[in-house]
Amino acid sequence: MYWVQVLSRLQHRLKPQTFQNWFKPTHQVHEDDDQVMILIPSPFFRDVIQGSYMSHIQACVRECGLKEKELRFVTSTEWESIQMKNRSLKPVHPDLNPLYTFENFVEGQSNQNAYAASRAVADHPGMVYNPLFIYGGVGLGKTHLLHAIGNFVYQQRPQLKVVYVSCDALMNQLVEAYRRGTVHEMRKYYRTTDVLLLDDVHTLGGKERTQEELFSLFNILYQAGKQIVLTADQPPQKLTHLEKRLISRFSWGLVTDIQPPELEVRMAILIKKAQIHGFQLPDDVALFIAENVTENVRLLEGALKSLIFHASTRSQPISIELAREAIATMVGSSPTTNNVLEYSEISRITIDDIADVVSNYFGFSKETLFSRSHRPRIVLPRQITMYLARHLLQASLPEIGNYFKKHHTTVMHGVQKIEELLDHSPKLKDQIHEIIQILQERNQKRRTRL
Ligand code: ADP
Ligand code: MG
Q1: Preceding amide of 131 cis, omega within 30
Q2: Does the CB atom of residue 162 touch ligand 1 within 6 A?
Q3: pLDDT above 70 covers what percent of the chain?
Q4: Pairing relation of β-strands 27-31 and 35-39?
Q5: pLDDT tens digits, 390-417
Q6: In whole angstroms, how large is the CA radius of gyration of the chain?
Q7: Which ligand gives the minimal distance to the CA of 259?
Q8: Less CB within 10 Å around the terminal CB: N or C of the chain?
Q9: Test site for ligand 1: of 198, 298, 304, most ligand atoms within 8 A of the Cβ
Q10: Region 43-49: what's the mean pLDDT?
Q11: pTM summary value
């Protein structure tokens, strides 16, 4: 790797402290014929590196006998935006998360049957297992696999109609269709599906109308040889709160489960997720988190997000100490397996909560935050909200964009603006810490109320 070679030379040229501060936290994320992209913890690193060390770097490039390439230093936010531009060259299904792919799914003993079945179904929709029924606990990758099937079919066979819907959404759509008198159109839409991906069927309990619609839909698609994939938190025979004729159909094809991942898989998932966010997670840190967060993958991600947030706000390299601290500050005590449940509280915070607290903090209404105002006293809080959504929730740029009804590049500029300001303004740092504290307290209060 280009940058690794440069670094190994650079290490001998610079004072150990300098190298430790400015180069240890960097790593290469991309290389092609003309350029190399290097991830940096904050924009400040770019100023320092380009301001003071470029001649050293160029000398190292020559010493290593490497081709001269453009070196681009990018923050994780910039890197995500670059990746998104590349990704959008390929068509993306509007209802599917483009990151939930087979490539991004880590296989292990706990999920290997479900994974293999999903791949087979994606390769030969309607031909192998129909329906495919995947069940397992919360946060174990059921939705991820459904999207992976959808993304795969959508890429490989664009002529097929892929529909993803959660049963909750299905019910809401049905209610809406009844209200507007458009049930007929809705049926037509669903009944012309080639691959139906139906998430969380266990939530259909008590929703008789929806079950009835689903029953008809199932029969029509099944008889036409269309692929149906379902997920639930229990195997079909345990879904006793659903209609019998429906659950018997659920087990006509293949029923497969996902169990909580083993330690090695948890580690591999952490390392892969960190890569997607543009971070390199050292093995010892991955092991530390994987040993402390065992229950489900969503919690694992929560811990990782918290760590990345801490690393990026302090421009520090990722280490076990930082992981311990990141976890501790998020949950208010030291990490033990008992605290795992509390991680899920992090994910209860939404962009809307952040917008609430931020607008309150600056003394105006949340609507003002959404206004078109370009006045600095409004723009800055808006950017702070974007920044916190990005780093605290690891929300994607399009997600934040949707919330504010703004283009994702606007969000990127907003987040970057704060990242840049943070390097120079202790006042802003204090403000942001206060806001985070208020958010945590609010969350804590909400928890005790529950
Ligand atoms: P479920 O639908 O079972 O509740 P999700 O599919 O929403 O769970 O998964 C929760 C999170 O964990 C997602 O971000 C998903 O990408 C991730 N995840 C779960 N299992 C895996 C895996 N084996 N490899 C990679 N990511 C995983
Ligand atoms: Mg799910």
Answers
A1: yes
A2: no
A3: 91
A4: antiparallel
A5: 877 777 788 888 889 888 889 999 999 9
A6: 24
A7: 1
A8: C
A9: 298
A10: 89
A11: 0.67
